[in-house]
């Protein structure tokens, strides 16, 4: 097993949770089934400060209760992200157009499912979106922002994501607040493709592979399962990756050379 530690100013809580969870898994275990599987095809454009594309969510009702609508979190719409935000360009459920309903909280929207979906039933939702990334935003430990000091981009919660379900409590729709990691979601599976300028290297939770064609690159990421899919975009060419073993777990640390700590 390999843990990859991201750089930039990703949320400390995200990293600690990933390390603790991975360190606990010292022996292979069966991959558990998940409530939702995400397939994303996106384009990251650092010149416009956006990442946009289409997301398909294969959702299974594992709540134990009928659900007539599925709530999504749009965390970048929180006030403390300034000019950051997510706009939706189209939503479908099983191929049919569906409207996104506001809730009074800009970080929460609901997608009607047409009728109540009973436990065990599937729905396929497609969402086209455009996310604007704020520059040097201090919100949530700087986990979602472009960093003018070193040219990196910290991308956590950059896509619409199904809200977390708490047995006995229901959907967790607590408002996002400044100064904490707001993410409360259910572990999911991810298959992501991001097109981006080749002058950037993408490092992500999960396993990534990058193919470069001239000044364009395509990074494919797979995570099955995981709490969330987070990405850091680093200026390519001056990056140091160091690996070590800790209690039987391989830890890979990827950093710009200026931040690398020898040993």
Structural commentary:
This protein has about 260 residues and is mainly beta. The chain has 1 helix and 21 strands. The chain has one helix spanning about 10-25; strands at about 1-5, 35-45, 50-60, 65-75, 85-95, 95, 100, 110-115, 120-130, 145, 155, 160, 165, 170, 190-195, 200-205, 205-215, 215-225, 230-235, 240-245, 250-255. A hairpin with a 4-residue loop joins strand 2 and strand 3 (about 50-60). The longest helix is centred in the first third of the chain and has 13 residues, at about 10-25. Mean pLDDT is about 85; it is low at about 1-30.
Question: Can you give me a brief rundown of this structure?
Answer:
This protein has one helix spanning 12-24, and strands at 2-5, 36-45, 50-60, 67-73, 85-93, 96-97, 101-102, 108-117, 122-132, 144-146, 153-155, 161-162, 165-166, 170-171, 188-197, 200-204, 207-213, 216-226, 231-235, 239-246, 249-256. By secondary structure, the chain is mostly beta strands.
């Amino acid at each position: 097993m390999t843990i990859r530690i991201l750089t930039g100013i990703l949320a400390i809580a995200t990293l600690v949770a990933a390390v603790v969870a991975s360190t606990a898994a010292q022996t292979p275990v069966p991959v558990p089934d998940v409530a939702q599987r995400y397939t994303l095809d996106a384009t990251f454009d650092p010149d416009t400060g956006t990442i946009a594309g289409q997301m398909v969510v294969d959702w299974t009702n594992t709540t134990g209760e009928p659900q007539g609508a599925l709530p999504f979190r749009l965390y970048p719409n929180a006030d403390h992200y300034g000019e950051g935000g997510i706009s939706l360009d189209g939503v479908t459920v099983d191929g049919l157009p569906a409207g996104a309903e506001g809730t009074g909280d800009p970080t929460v929207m609901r997608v009607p499912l047409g009728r109540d979906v009973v436990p065990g039933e599937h729905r396929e939702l497609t969402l086209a979106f455009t996310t604007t990334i704020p520059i040097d935003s201090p919100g949530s430990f700087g986990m979602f922002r472009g960093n003018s000091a070193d040219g990196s981009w910290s991308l956590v919660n950059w896509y619409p994501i199904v809200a977390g379900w708490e047995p006995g409590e229901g959907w967790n729709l607590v408002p996002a607040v400044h100064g904490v990691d707001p993410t409360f979601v259910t572990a999911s599976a991810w298959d992501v493709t991001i097109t981006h300028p080749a002058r950037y290297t993408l490092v992500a939770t999960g396993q990534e592979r990058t193919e470069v064609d001239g000044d364009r690159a395509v990074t494919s990421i797979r995570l099955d399962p995981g709490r969330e899919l987070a990405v850091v975009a680093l200026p390519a060419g001056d990056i140091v990756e160091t690996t070590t073993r800790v209690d039987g777990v391989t830890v890979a640390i990827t950093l710009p050379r200026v931040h690398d700590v020898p040993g």
